[in-house]
Amino acid sequence: MIKLRFQSKSEKVLDTSMRKGGNASAIVSGLALGPIFSGCSPTYLAIVSVLLPANFSTGILYLLSYCLGLSLILFLVILGGQGIIKKFKWAVNPSGNFRKTLGVILLLIGILIFFRIDKQIEASLINTDFTESLIKFENGFLKEEL
After folding, report:
1. Distance between CA 110 and CA 125 in Å, rounded?
2. Which residues have C-beta within 8 Å of that of residue 93, sequence separation ≥ 6?
3. Stretch 73-92: mean pLDDT, rounded?
4. Which of 1, 23, 27, 77 is least surrounded by Cβ atoms within 10 Å, i.e. has the fewest?
5. Window from 2-11, 85-94, 97-106 with minimum mean pLDDT
6. pTM attached to this predicted model
7. How many CB atoms lie within 10 A of CB 32?
8. In the predicted structure, residue 46 carries a pLDDT above the cut 80
9. What is the DSSP letter of 95?
């Protein structure tokens, strides 16, 4: 990636597309970021490592199938996400009470983690009747599967 200068080329394309805006900008951004992130993906690595022993045409077919499947799933996530966002506009309002409340909750969780209070809370929850009933509930599913 470094020798082929994918990162610098992708950054230039990404910068240009972000300035323009619109749907075409989003598509160009995805194309610009694809080469950067695909090399880091463990799934991509697994597919490439499985494909190496195969012949070239089979490897290309498998790789194209992977790309098509991944693209289809991401497209469905985008469509579903747009529908959800349209229904919950109050949740994405940057100055709304919902976002402020989530910010306070995340800040409190961060403080709990920093002072390691979360570990104490988790330890106290382990020895409760609620936890035991959850374990029994989950084990019931396990027995049905076996």
Report:
1. 19
2. 99
3. 83
4. 23
5. 2-11
6. 0.39
7. 20
8. no
9. T
